[in-house]
Amino acid sequence: MTVTNPPSNTNPTMNLEILVPGRTDPWAFETVAVTRDTTVVDVIKQLSGKKEGKYILTSCGLYARGSDLDSSKTVAENIKFVGGTTVQLRLAPKFSNAVLKRGEELLEQIREIINTRSGRTWAGLMRSLRIMDSHVDDRQLSVEELKEGLQKFGMNMSSDDAAAVMRAIDYDSTGTISIGEFVRAIRGKLNAPRLEVVKRAFEKFDRDGSGEITLKDLELAGYTYTQDKHMREFFNQFQEDQENGEMDDKITTDEFEEYYARVSANIDNDLHFVELVEKAWKLPRTV
Question: Is 119 within 8 Å of 133 (Cβ atoms)?
Answer without folding.
Answer: no
